[in-house]
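Exercise 7. Given the components listed, write out the predicted structure of the assembled complex. Treat all entries as one system.
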Amino acid sequence: MSTMVGRQTAPIAPVAPSTGALRPLGLDEVRITGGFWGERQHVNGTASIPHCDHWETRVGWVGNFQRALDGTLEHRTGREFADSDVYKMIEAMAWEVGRTGDPALEARIAELTALIAQVQEPDGYLNTHFGRPGQPPRYSDLAWGHELYCVGHLIQAAVARLRTGHDDELVAVARRAADHVCAEFGPDGRDGVCGHPEIEVALVELARATGERRYLDQARLFVERRGRGTLPDIEFGREYYQDDVPVREATVLRGHAVRALYLAAGALDVAVETGDDELFAAVVRQYERTLARRTYVTGGMGSHHQDEAFGEDFELPPDRAYSETCAGVASVMVAWRLALATGDLAWGDVVERTLYNVVATSPAADGRAFFYTNPLHKRVAGEAADPDEVSARALSRLRAPWFEVSCCPTNVARTFATLGAYVATVSDDGLQVHQYAPCTIDTALGDGRRIGVEVATGYPVEGDVVVRVTTAPEGEAEIALRVPAWAVGAATLDGTRVDGPVARVRRTFAAGDEVRLTLPVGPRVVAADDRVDAVRGTVAVERGPVVLCVESTDLPEGLQVDEVRIDPTAPVEPAGPGAVARGARVAVVERPWPYDDASPAPADEPLDLVLTPYHDWANRGPSTMRVWLPTT
Amino acid sequence: MSTMVGRQTAPIAPVAPSTGALRPLGLDEVRITGGFWGERQHVNGTASIPHCDHWETRVGWVGNFQRALDGTLEHRTGREFADSDVYKMIEAMAWEVGRTGDPALEARIAELTALIAQVQEPDGYLNTHFGRPGQPPRYSDLAWGHELYCVGHLIQAAVARLRTGHDDELVAVARRAADHVCAEFGPDGRDGVCGHPEIEVALVELARATGERRYLDQARLFVERRGRGTLPDIEFGREYYQDDVPVREATVLRGHAVRALYLAAGALDVAVETGDDELFAAVVRQYERTLARRTYVTGGMGSHHQDEAFGEDFELPPDRAYSETCAGVASVMVAWRLALATGDLAWGDVVERTLYNVVATSPAADGRAFFYTNPLHKRVAGEAADPDEVSARALSRLRAPWFEVSCCPTNVARTFATLGAYVATVSDDGLQVHQYAPCTIDTALGDGRRIGVEVATGYPVEGDVVVRVTTAPEGEAEIALRVPAWAVGAATLDGTRVDGPVARVRRTFAAGDEVRLTLPVGPRVVAADDRVDAVRGTVAVERGPVVLCVESTDLPEGLQVDEVRIDPTAPVEPAGPGAVARGARVAVVERPWPYDDASPAPADEPLDLVLTPYHDWANRGPSTMRVWLPTT
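Answer.
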């Protein structure tokens, strides 16, 4: 195995592999300047991050650390993993400081860090729920205790500090915690894994950020240990925490979706850093089958509520979609790692679909309420959540300000703060643009030549993406632009049709040169594989990467979303960010028993069907909604 | 309100209202002599009831009572409601003794009763999980403690003893327990209800069996108290335990299905005994909407796994059907009460559909393993359960011998032991036959005249039901035979078409007279209301009251149930208890992303599609299965 060397030039980005086809760019190299994602970054920084801090404090999860100092943890609040949500918030703050330099946020990080650091025990152990008198002993409940999961999020926050130039106390705390984990769970230590994967992906990144090989070795050990039944058998089976089959033998993602996806991301990181092609191929195989058979049209993953888990292949009910926001975040993590490692820009399709239709669906327009789950069909309008109350019911309410299990808001916050990192990469002599947003990119190619571009676009509502060179590298270079799968064969580059999934221009550029990619972002009617039983006889409409839906808010008074049909053969016209389709309202026939052989053909009445972006649903008050529309 | 008087002539049956359109008959009046239900009663008595006794003993739930005596309840086993499963088993045994007079079973009841009686506290309280030093205090957890639920099942066992002629120690224990409940939860007592309805239906029956009005009053109080938010708000909402809306204001059954249905049965009983037409109408309205919008084609109820609950209207995914066996039992309880109260034989359709397709689906052919849930689509063959192991996984395994939560086996056992009670009723001058099985009926009409008939039939496989008079009442009388909804317009009575839902013969009968009802039990293709999104574009096949399915066991080697289609326009031929349809196997096209606009029409290859009764599925080993079949 290669000796690891920390890269001096690691980007200000959450993922920085030491090797791979493409080099990610940092938040200082890519600046999103407006548009869909610029607006969300702004709301995230100005509203969501302060909102998270307000709630983490109010519900006492920050206070748990103070209670640990005061010896009053009998009043500890939150679930066993509450510490992790504080760490995820600090991670979001750290990236936001990296992006904006906000001194107030920097001061808040220092304040939180000082508090947390005092709670760490001399041997590096750090958790407010375990190990003290009256508390369960350390590592007494690996299945549900989330101790290593919490350390993982602490580490990710520390990596964010390191990458944004702050080798501070939080980094020292995380290193001590990681060293403790290595000592406790090393080759001669406890033969265990955490019930919730997360530490794997964190330890690899810490190894990358610090150059310390031992963290990578420990991550590798955790990945290899999983699937060997060290965790207890439970009602959902050991597949719930992926402890049923070794990672390199599994054929599909299964069990708890966030757990499965975090593990996949960590396993990819281990594979990349150790050159383990077999492990890498195993995860690719699992993820590809998951995309082909266990993923919603939104990119959402997970169809079982009970265990927040993947269903069987093609078991994808829109009404009972769980599609947890955090699973969307985790799927973006996996797809992005695959793009970096393989250089295949098509993984950007998954990143894009999931960002637009899962992650962006979670926060309300004002950034102060969140969906935890993201169903694709809502038969009965949910209740509006009280903006001043923690929601115990993630399932039946609209976006809520906070949850008893509140993993999603901080996960959205840390993702939105780092959106710039998913936009572009460089190779030796090329710049690749993966996501389209108004932005400036200033970086160096792998061979050291500087390159700068400015991207102007109204995407995804408009299809033109103009890349203007601001700093031209000397000599020949390549600018490569991802062509989404739905645009292949219809996209043009400077007016010429692009045949494949990448539009490439290789030449000697001059400052001011422009490259114009035009993507067909008009409405498209899509159907599902016939094996997706739950949506047979229906279609969905997409506009560019955005999945549209019908929302009761846009229907004539009194009409329900379950009483309309769409004519899939008629043209669907764009309308703002949505579309208008030819549809029909159907006459509903009430019967005492809904199953018989005389289902009468209802009389259709024509109707213009307004479709709006799914990620905007329920932003205009409680509504019913459906993505998959029965056809006339 | 009327004063209640215990009927001296109460039938040997679980439900004996003091008033109503029809009088139920007892197990001594109706004897099932063979056929589908005769076989099941035999297996139930010879295998299932001893099996339950074996497991209740082995897992220590019987032993909990001994531990209470020994002061060793720190070793108590099972969940907080484990006592109830012992009581349900005793109830099954009691009915079986009433049916067969088995002295060994009678001795076992006496043995269990003696044990239980010693555990009862002086004030009548009886529960092995609460109230002792080191245990939670009595009634400290009404939401989840199941204390009143356990008393309810104790009472139902005692009622079975009373009705089968044994006014024994168990009856005394149950009366003391009921008196304790009345004292504790009476008008001036605790303003609470049990998180799991059950005591309501039990108390009314105890009032009926003993003539003690106070039990009815207490049941009424519990029914009226529910829906007023005395139980805590929880993640699933108070609708989980029907504490969201008062019973007489609710519009549909909702929340945990077994809870909702037990409550509905109890509320009907209260309404019948107190002449409360408003309450009665409220429950009818709720149940009718539940049948029209929240019931599977099998009669199964409950589509949410997480909270074992009803979904929204038309949210009926076949693959994620929960359709708990106990909910089937409870739905039979409700429908039967409606038949008795209203005299409308059509409620027998619901009883029949649910018995054949939910309750009969649960037990294995040998009566020693049970389904807890009854999905209508199984994509991946379940694992065979270890016949020697308690199953913690009711969901992913095939029928299992016992469960950690093992409510279903004893519920099936007590229902099968009393099947005779659902067959027929009498009115003043008529005999009504609700269910068709080979049987003898010997009883008195309401006006006192004796009547006897013998029913010969091969139903449900064959459609002829011959009712031969063995004892003719003097003068004119009526024999009424239920015509299932699917047979209306096609059934014949002695060769003449019957137009309505009841075939009636009113005349003076002589011994030896025969009435022949012929029902069209050939295969029928049924479609679902278009609002049942999950089965759009599919049909199901029924034979008489029996829902059929396609099971992988009957498909050509290697073919999966999700790769076949049915031609709904071609005739479906009967074949044994099942059918053969014209179908097709479809070519499966694998795609990396299952949603696009180019869904190719797969090339169909004709195939004879064998359909078997759904209740038999997985009796030939692990298999995949589906009830709803996509059409060609």
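Discussion: Chain A touches chain B through 65 residues (CB under 8 Å). Chain A has a mean pLDDT of 95.
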